[in-house]
Write a structure and sequence with these properties.
Blueprint: E1 10-13, H1 19-30, E2 34-39, E3 50-53, H2 59-73, E4 78-81, H3 96-124, E5 127-132, H4 145-165, E6 170-177, H5 196-211, H6 220-230, E7 238-241, H7 244-255, H8 258-269
Parallel strand pairs: 1-2, 1-4, 2-3, 4-5, 5-6, 6-7
Helix pairs in contact: 1-6, 2-3, 3-4
The structure holds NADP nicotinamide-adenine-dinucleotide phosphate (NAP).
């Protein structure tokens, strides 16, 4: 991997139009890297980096977007699979169609992009794939079952991928953010109706979740960590962008008996 500090890299960041992805694009561009973000929307181009059109749920769109970058920049050194969706609702009310849409974006979307960029990385015997998962990959979150499931799936996918591509000089890592101040809550998938039997608890959990916005942090922190991973010759398998009780929760999940951890989680949300 060409990770010499100061070396200009060609970076593709999915979901470069807002939130964490936008922060990553801005920071890496400011460091002099050649950065391509992606968006599904038509609009103005940002300063310092370029947005290419890509819907990660559509294989043809992914291939077109990657091809556009390869034609323009000649190679892709680093891919940050950041584009993702949230989902909320009682598991019982989540239709398989909604679950499929979420998994199609959060898991298969990253897979489509990996399939498109890996041939070039293998040929050059260098590359870095950073998959943005979530602290939610470590445990089930109440009323966000499929979000946790999708991020846990992407964690395991990335572990397996790394073992397969490391012989070609490619590293695959995950980055798990805690709560960051972005637009993710507004675009969360939601079931059309919430069962009455869940309503009271669901409303309370969502109220606590909504209230946590006041301590959610600047997404540039995630961008700083991405830049650090890029400058590391042999990156670790997983990185955390989380602080305080959020970071602690990952360690507690490893240490506490399952039911005890779940009771602690529900206490937090009630
Ligand atoms: N914010 C947090 O607290 C937090 C915590 C943990 C993990 N994360 C993860 O961080 C990543 C970024 O989230 P965010 O908080 O920055 O959310 P955000 O502000 O809602 O941004 C989501 C980005 O994903 C893109 N996107 C969504 N669906 C897409 C699709 N089908 N094809 C291509 N792009 C798509 C959007 O681009 P367009 O709409 O322009 O196409 C947008 O740029 C997600 O994977 C999320 O799960 C976020």
């Amino acid at each position: 991997m060409s990770s010499t500090p100061g070396f200009v890299k060609v970076v593709l960041v999915t979901g470069g139009s807002s939130g964490i992805g936008e922060s990553i694009c801005k920071r890496l561009a400011a460091q002099g890297h050649r950065v391509y973000g992606t968006t599904r929307k038509a609009g103005e181009q940002p300063n310092g980096y370029r947005l290419v059109s890509m819907d990660i749920t559509d294989e043809a769109s992914v291939l077109r977007g990657v091809d556009e970058v390869l034609r323009e920049a000649g190679r892709i050194d680093v891919v940050v699979n950041n584009a993702g969706l949230g989902i909320q609702g009682p598991a019982e009310d989540i239709t398989p169609e909604m679950a499929l849409q979420l998994l199609d974006t959060n898991v298969l979307g990253a897979h489509r992009v990996c399939r498109a960029v890996l041939p070039g990385m293998r040929t050059r015997k260098a590359g870095l794939v950073i998959n943005i998962t979530s602290l939610a990959a470590n445990y089930g979150l109440p009323f966000r079952s499929f979000y946790s499931a999708s991020k846990a799936a992407l964690e395991r996918y990335t572990e397996a991928l790394h073992m397969e591509v490391a012989p070609f000089g490619i590293h695959a890592v995950t980055l798990q953010p805690g709560e960051y101040n972005t637009k993710i809550a507004t675009s969360r998938l939601r079931p059309a109706t919430i069962g009455e039997h869940y309503r009271k608890l669901y409303d309370r959990v969502m109220e606590v979740l909504g209230g946590s916005l006041h301590y959610s942090r600047d997404p540039d922190e995630v961008a700083v960590l991405v830049a650090k991973i890029m400058a590391t010759p042999r990156p670790k398998s997983a990185y955390y962008a989380a602080h305080g009780v959020q970071r602690l929760s990952v360690e507690l999940k490893k240490l506490l008996p399952g039911r005890r951890f779940q009771r602690m989680m529900m206490k937090h949300y009630q």
